[in-house]
């Protein structure tokens, strides 16, 4: 009797509870699931009843998966502020000790108006337990030390171990890499020197920048629709625009945030679910990537910190090729304006979006595969000569364009095309929080992702007139007529033109049919 009374009650972690719920969701009988996990039917019923709470906690990543109880902190707003700060620091691999966290907690508590809060060792331990934090001494690696013995060992260890396990169950078609880059979309050749090395953390230059997210698979057969983040939510140039070659979002810094990245992830996850696919997504540990939602069809793998320069396929030439092609589009526009003696107008967001998307879709499959091979994630198959040809194709034509424009616009001799392409490589692509921003994020009604007004950066640009479908069809006919006077036009060009013509004709026919039916119904 005494032993029975002292029987210890078993507690389950959040991770264990979710496994129980998932087992029931898989179609197993509840009785079998209860036996498998050694729980009573009433405990199983309680887990199923509370599943919404468990899923919410996992989605928000507000507690560690090993937590067995879900009590909130006494000073909940201090707890949230400290955790937001910790995530930023952790994403940068900066050394964090218990004493550092306690000092930061006292500082943030003071800013929040708490005079009696004490960041005791007991509070620190409870904070760690609430969020599943293991305090390890992690030092920031200097980028200059990347390829020393430590860096090489780290890369080799990842190639020999973790990546093999990650890709084991996936074909190259289902292994993806996603990454962001900043773009000074209005940059002119003569202003290259001023932009070089600019991090653009905000201010006036935020109006001149975009952040673009790209994603592609290892076989080069699939490039996902780009996500472009600007500063203006409703720019004049996008008025009456309902279709774009990318997804467009906005916030004050024109950078990637956790909310935007997670929204994009959920959309990709939903697409994969509809297609009945499972994919592996490789990403870096940028601060926008460190609180992921619950995903059903995407397995996320993190690249080793501070090694993305040699391990991330998009960083090994894919994004660079996109920028070469984008800058080439800009140079062609400038050259056409110079030839026609027209005034140079700033590129607006709509034009930039079109050119970025066109550049992205123009990146060749061979370029994508080459960069995945260079990262050591898929086997090397191309020869060295093939690699060199693939790398030089887009840049050779662009160099000629550059020399023509540079000469006409008096670009200094010390600036070359490579400087023009890489001028925005140092742009900050995700928000870096400071204490005041952490506190602002805790205040009710404050939205740190609020986009700039529709007027900012757009007032000087003329509003484009709305083009009717009749005018669009007429333009296609004129283009067809022009091409008929040219020599050696590829069949693919005529095929693309036919596709546009068919789309427009279907649209106008459907509009006429719908309007006739409406007229008929109105007369009855």
UniProtKB/TrEMBL annotation:
InterPro entries, alphabetized: CenT-Element_Derived (IPR050863), DDE_SF_endonuclease_dom (IPR004875), Homeodomain-like_sf (IPR009057), HTH_CenpB_DNA-bd_dom (IPR006600), HTH_Psq (IPR007889)
Do you know which PROSITE patterns this protein is assigned to?
Answer: HTH_CENPB, HTH_PSQ
Q: Which residues bind DNA?
A: 30-50
Indicate the segments forming the HTH CENPB-type domain, all copies. Answer: 66-137
Q: Which GO terms describe its cellular component?
A: nucleus
Q: Which Pfam families match?
A: CENP-B_N, DDE_1, HTH_Tnp_Tc5
Location in or out of the cell = Nucleus
* Species in which this protein is naturally found: Leptonychotes weddellii
Q: Which UniProt keywords apply?
A: DNA-binding, Nucleus
In what residue span(s) does the HTH psq-type domain sit?
A: 3-54
Q: Which domain of life is it from?
A: Eukaryota
Protein's name in the database: Tigger transposable element-derived protein 6
Lineage summary: Eukaryota, Metazoa, Chordata, Craniata, Vertebrata
SUPFAM superfamilies the record matches: Homeodomain-like
Q: Which GO terms describe its molecular function?
A: DNA binding
């Amino acid at each position: 009797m005494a032993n029975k009374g002292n029987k210890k009650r078993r507690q389950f972690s959040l991770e264990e509870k979710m496994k129980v719920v998932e087992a029931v969701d898989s179609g197993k009988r509840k009785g079998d699931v209860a036996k498998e996990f050694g729980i009573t039917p009433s405990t199983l019923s309680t887990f199923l009843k509370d599943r919404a709470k468990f899923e919410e906690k996992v989605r928000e990543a507000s507690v560690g998966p090993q937590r067995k109880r879900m009590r909130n902190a006494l000073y909940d707003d201090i707890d949230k502020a400290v955790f937001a700060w910790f995530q930023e620091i952790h994403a940068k691999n900066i050394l964090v000790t218990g004493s550092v966290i306690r000092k930061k907690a006292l500082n943030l508590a003071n800013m929040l108006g708490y005079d009696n809060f004490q960041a005791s060792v007991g509070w620190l331990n409870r904070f760690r337990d609430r969020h599943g934090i293991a305090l390890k001494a992690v030092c920031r690696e200097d980028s200059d030390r990347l390829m020393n013995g430590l860096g090489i060992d780290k890369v080799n260890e990842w190639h020999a171990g973790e990546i093999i396990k990650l890709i084991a169950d996936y074909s190259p078609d289902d292994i993806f890499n996603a990454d962001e880059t900043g773009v000074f979309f209005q940059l002119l050749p003569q202003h290259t020197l001023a932009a070089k090395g600019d991090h653009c953390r905000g201010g006036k230059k935020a109006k001149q920048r975009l952040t673009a997210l790209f994603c592609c698979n290892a076989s080069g057969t699939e490039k996902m629709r780009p996500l472009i983040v600007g500063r203006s939510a409703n720019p004049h140039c996008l008025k009456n625009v309902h279709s774009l070659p990318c997804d467009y979002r906005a916030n004050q810094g024109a950078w990637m945030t956790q909310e935007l990245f997670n929204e994009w992830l959920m959309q990709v996850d939903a697409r994969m679910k509809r297609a009945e696919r499972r994919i592996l997504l490789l990403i870096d540990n940028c601060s926008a990537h460190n609180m992921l939602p619950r995903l059903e069809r995407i397995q996320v793998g993190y690249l080793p910190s501070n090694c993305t320069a040699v391990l991330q396929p998009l960083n090994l030439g894919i994004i660079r090729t996109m920028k070469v092609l984008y800058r080439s589009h800009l140079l062609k526009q400038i050259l056409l304006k110079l030839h026609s003696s027209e005034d140079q107008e700033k590129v607006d967001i709509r034009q930039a979006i079109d050119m970025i998307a066109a550049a992205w879709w123009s990146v060749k499959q061979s370029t994508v595969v080459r960069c995945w091979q260079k990262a050591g994630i898929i086997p090397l198959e191309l020869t060295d000569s093939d690699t060199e040809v693939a790398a030089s194709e887009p840049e050779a034509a662009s160099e000629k364009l550059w020399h023509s424009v540079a000469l006409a616009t008096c670009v200094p001799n010390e600036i070359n095309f490579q400087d023009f392409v890489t001028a925005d490589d140092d742009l900050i692509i995700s928000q870096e929080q400071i204490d005041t921003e952490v506190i602002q994020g805790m205040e009710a009604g404050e939205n740190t992702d609020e986009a700039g007004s529709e007027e900012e950066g757009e007032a000087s640009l003329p509003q484009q007139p709305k083009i009717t479908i009749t005018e669009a069809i007429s333009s296609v006919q004129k283009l067809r007529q022009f091409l008929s006077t040219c020599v050696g036009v590829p069949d693919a060009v005529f095929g693309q033109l036919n596709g546009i013509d068919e789309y427009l004709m279907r649209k106008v026919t459907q509009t006429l049919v719908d309007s006739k039916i409406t007229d008929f119904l109105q007369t009855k």
